[in-house]
Amino acid sequence: QVQLVESGGGLVPPGGSLRLSCEASGFTFASGAMSWYRQAPGKERELVARIGIYGSTNYAESVKGRFTISRDNAKNTVYLQMNSLKPEDTAVYYCFARRVDRPMDYWGQGTQVTVSP
Q1: Residue 54 gets which letter from DSSP?
Q2: How far apart are CA 24 and CA 34, in angstroms?
């Protein structure tokens, strides 16, 4: 059974930092391109950052220079370090895995990030 379990969300003031974690199980983590998406109330889900199986990364323009995605294949975990947080970063953040060895995708359950004074 595949599971993606996010953690690390919470309430933080503007300018603060959070690190999200997503621990995967049930598939070969090293064969998964991993991403973080977010969905704010009343808005569509959007891609925040992606890291490929060889470590290449892509970011949404709105988070470039503030967020960093990384992965630790030994721990089956992908991270999202979020610095200089803004109120507009408030959203539910979802972990997403796309396997490269077979056509299957997986979503985590989401973790709430709220940026507010």
Answers
A1: T
A2: 10
